Structure formats: structure tokens, C-alpha cells
Amino acid sequence: LVSRDNHPERSTVSVGGVPIGPDTVTLIAGPCAVETPQQTLEAAQMAKAAGATLLRGGAYKPRTSPYAFQGLGEAGLRILADVRAETGLPIVTEVVDAHDVELVASYADMLQVGTRNAQNFALLQAVGGIGKPVMLKRGMSATIEEWLMAAEYIAQRGNLDIVLCERGIRTFETATRNTLDVSAVPVAQRLSHLPVIVDPSHSGGRRDLVLPLTRAAIAAGADGVIIDVHPHPEQALCDGPQALVDGDLRELSRVMRQFPPLL
Ligand code: PEP
């Protein structure tokens, strides 16, 4: 279903009216985690002012340590909905448990399945059946074939509104949090008709790498990028070292617009 063999035209997925696909390069930005109404609104205003058309923000945070901030849950979803009402930006937010899919989908414009759940087949089937677009991150140790098969689990439930997101993979390298697999962009686009975006924030894990990795992603033909921003990264409860501040995001957006679209 997700293969390009039977569907040669590349697909566009509409998220609350915002297209992600071959004719555009979509900027998604927002806080890694929803922390407070003020922080989320400020991050969304930064995103919108820089030209982002979708707001990201996690209310459910799958953290490596069980002692780290796990997100605000439904209270975070309510904050996102309020910020959407205020800014007009549709929301992309993660769901980590099949039991929460209905609840998260009642707030979200696009459901995010994160790297740690990329082969959680029960979750993939649940998001496939809920009737909302899905952003599927690549598993940090998944081959491209495994990633596309994960997408197939969603598609099999009748949902072809899937956006693939390359977010870096595990390699021997320790200088970056993950290694951005730039080649995954054209490879996945050739194998699948689904849009492919890149997360330069979670791949590098470092603010100074976000712009160069964005350039690499766009040059490779990515259909968009998803970027962490925070009004006060030093106070962030999650992934502050990779969050951009206002001026950085504007610069990134300006640079993105300099690349001519790839055919
Ligand atoms: C995220 O985007 O908030 C996130 C946790 O990303 P990943 O699943 O790629 O680590």
C-alpha cells in the first residue's frame, strides 16, 4: 500500500489543511514537550513568526529514564488545543500507548508515533484506524524496509495519510546523539509514495547542528523538517540543548526558502 510500485505519483498529506508533500517544504516547529500554557504559546508564536505552518509539542514524552519528565498528559493536550485556537496552527503530537489513541486523536491534527514505538504494531494498527494523519518516525535501529513495513501496518487499517520522518539512527558514533541518515530521504521517496520529512533536532541532539542538518535534509529532497524551539531552552524540562530560540528559527526558515524545490 505504501510502495511506489502501484502508486507512482508521490502523495501529499493534508494536516488540518496544511499540505506535506512534493510541492512544498513544510516547516513544523514547537516545543519538544508542552510544559506550561505560557511556554507553549510563546514557542508557537516563535514558530508562526518564522513561517512554520504546523505546531509540534509532546504531551506524552517517552523518556529513556523513568525519572525524567514524562509530559503533562491530557492537560498538555488541552494546552495545545488552546494554543491552536490562539495561533491557528494545527497540532502534531505524540501518542505512546494504543489505549490513548482515541483521546490524543480528539485533540491532535496529526498523530506522531515516535522512534521508540516505531515497531509497536498494536499502536500502529490503532493509529491506522482512527482517521487522522500519522507522522511515523523511523525506529532508531530500523532499516528502511522495516520503517516502510511499519507504515504498511498503518496503511492496512485504511489510513494512507502517513508522513515518514527520518530522525537519525544508532551508529558507533558518539559525537552526535544519533546519526542523521540523509540517504534515507531519497531512498524512502523512491520506494514509497509517502512524504518524507526530517527531524534535525532529535537526530543531532545539539542546537548547533540543527541548521546544517536542515540544509542537508532539504538538499536531499526532504518534504519538510520538524524543529524543536523553546523560549527559554536553559529552563526546558526536555531536550533543551537542541532547542532553537527565536532568531535561530527565523534564520533556519530563511535558509530553507533558498533551496529550489527538487523535481
Ligand atoms: C519527539 O519528537 O518528541 C521525539 C521524542 O522524537 P523521537 O521519537 O524521534 O526521539
Automatic annotation (TrEMBL):
Keywords: Transferase
Highest rank taxon of the organism: Bacteria
GO biological process: aromatic amino acid family biosynthetic process
Keyword Transferase listed: yes
The DAHP synthetase I/KDSA domain, residue ranges: 17-258
UniProt-recorded Gene Ontology molecular function terms: aldehyde-lyase activity; transferase activity
The protein, known as: 3-deoxy-7-phosphoheptulonate synthase
Full-sequence portion shown in this chain: 71 to 333 of 345
